[in-house]
Amino acid sequence: xxxxxxxxxxxxxxxxxxxxxxxxxxxxxxxxxxxxxxxxxxxxxxxxxxxxxxxxxxxxxxxxxxxxxxxxxxxxxxxxxxxxxxxxxxxxxxxxxxxxxxxxxxxxxxxxxxxxxxxxxxxxxx
Length: 126
Prior knowledge:
Helices cover about 70% and strands about 0% of the residues. The protein is an all-alpha fold. It has two domains: about 5-70, no CATH class; about 75-125, Homeodomain-like (Arc Repressor Mutant, subunit A, Orthogonal Bundle). Helix 3 (about 40-50) crosses helix 4 (about 50-65). The protein is elongated and about 50 Å long. The N and C termini lie far apart (about 40 Å).
């Protein structure tokens, strides 16, 4: 956990235990494997047996992002991959990365990448 040493000095955060490291790795794997499913920080923390604050601290330590930021980043990265490869419509990509409403997905994608998902599809020749 490369960022932990710096964060511990600044925030007085306890070093992750071996169990917490395992739980964090499992949670990261769950986020990446179940991206289309509803994922919430409170539920992930509860399932991991951690407080939301501790889960966020562990994510920040490991990835540099909070749990919610990590989920959004993974979803946007996967969305871009799907749009770049031409695997599906904007609506299908939105569903594949966990958005129930295309308008919310389009807004998030535009904020993240500075272009709409439709523009990304069109640019890639689909």
